[in-house]
Amino acid sequence: MAFSVTSSSAAIYGSGFSRSSSSSDLKVPQIGSFRLANFHATVNLSKKRCAVKPVNAEPKRNDSLLPQAASISAPEVLEKVEAEDFEQLAKELDNASPLEIMDKALEKFGNDVAIAFSGAEDVALIEYAKLTGRPFRVFSLDTGRLNPETYRFFDEVEKHYGIRIEYMFPDAVEVQALVRSKGLFSFYEDGHQECCRVRKVRPLRRALEGLRAWITGQRKDQSPGTRSEVPVVQVDPVFEGLDGGVGSLVKWNPVANVDGIDIWNFLRAMNVPVNSLHSQGFVSVGCEPCTRPVLPGQHEREGRWWWEDAKAKECGLHKGNLKQDSAAQLNGNGNGNGNGAAAHTDIFNSQSLVTLSRAGIENLTRLENRKEPWIVVLYAPWCPYCQAMEESYVALAEKLAGSGVKVAKFRADGEPKEYAQKELQLGSFPTILFFPKHSAKPIKYASEKRDVDSLMAFVNALR
Ligand code: SF4
């Protein structure tokens, strides 16, 4: 592995993006072909003769990632078939530096891998790629809803690295249909998934269909709920690559094990340009209507889709991070009973907690004047986010025992789910409601902070 930190490396990586460069400018070690062996971890990497025309040999930019790239997969003579166990490779690289992981990704996949750049601190990936001295490609999703600062930052990055970012745009007809039928801000009404599907997920899918691997800036510390198990490399569990089918795409996450603070230390040390939104309090950078600055102490993902519950905070680009039940919920087709609900023992077990039946919660919603206020969690025992808040909710019940505030739980998956969605503001699990003394209408707890102090502050503000 030869890492280059000299200025001469710029000439090498820069050539990778110049469509006018000759193919010999690029080090494209092999064009791989993946076939499923064990789709969880192993794909067959078929090393083919490089008689194939390199994607970057064409003079125009539209030959970049995408459907056109599929044209390079013309039948080739297989010289060697080598099974690659990416689960094993992930273990081997788990303690490797991001630079080593990046180098491995570029070495293995050459022109068939590209860095997914969001316009945020994942610019570190581009810096790492530059430092390897190898040619590399960068693509980005232009949703049409990004902040002006992000567009300027894209331009700055292109100039700084001497590259052209390969932008992916949403399908104009799909955007038009969505906006004409539901308006420009439908995501505030019925969730972000539909808009993200049109503006992000489908363009991403198109991009990935022209690749055999992609490189992301996912980190474990970004979202403890959904990203805590991200490996440094994996067979992509969701998207398909150039050869199609499950297991045809490899996903590299070189900074999976790096903390956000260390990414920033690296960016400063290397004097890398950064998005000016960061200096305005934005930690996470996404679409303008769906991203906001966070306060000190707030987690960065709290700045995304803040009007929704934590579970849904993957826009679909990394949906494979969600556990099966959570993914089903995200897709709107989970009822909580189909994926082993019966196998999960009940949660929130405490003598200080009241277990409400359907009749019990219906009665609660009918009372205009209660003797005492109630706080109720709508939950599903299989839901990891409910499981994660069990300790603090039980502690809350014990703190409030005898205080005049009742603490209760209502299991709202399965058959009662529809009722809970219609009548109890259930969006996703867990949903926490406060029933004040003198009003039938419950107040929904809007924050994702589910520690006992935050819940107590909510109760004390309303009791
Ligand atoms: Fe649409 Fe918001 Fe998703 Fe961007 S982040 S695609 S604006 S819902």
From TrEMBL:
UniProt KW keywords: Amino-acid biosynthesis, Chloroplast, Cysteine biosynthesis, Disulfide bond, Iron, Iron-sulfur, Metal-binding, Oxidoreductase, Plastid, Redox-active center, Stress response, Transit peptide
EC code: 1.8.4.9
A Gene Ontology BP annotation from the UniProt entry: sulfate assimilation, phosphoadenylyl sulfate reduction by phosphoadenylyl-sulfate reductase (thioredoxin)
Keyword field contains Isomerase: no
Domain annotation Thioredoxin: ranges: 321-463
Iron-sulfur as UniProt keyword: yes
Cellular localisation: Plastid, Chloroplast
SUPFAM superfamilies found in the cross-reference section: Adenine nucleotide alpha hydrolases-like, Thioredoxin-like
Cofactor: [4Fe-4S] cluster
Annotated catalysed reactions: glutathione disulfide + sulfite + AMP + 2 H(+) = adenosine 5'-phosphosulfate + 2 glutathione
EC category: oxidoreductase
GO terms under cellular component: chloroplast
NCBIfam families xrefs: APS_reduc, PRK02090.1
Functional summary from the UniProt entry: Reduces sulfate for Cys biosynthesis. Substrate preference is adenosine-5'-phosphosulfate (APS) >> 3'-phosphoadenosine-5'-phosphosulfate (PAPS). Uses glutathione or DTT as source of protons.
Protein family per UniProt: Belongs to the APS reductase family.
Identification of the protein by name: adenylyl-sulfate reductase (glutathione)
Species this chain originates from: Hibiscus syriacus (Rose of Sharon)
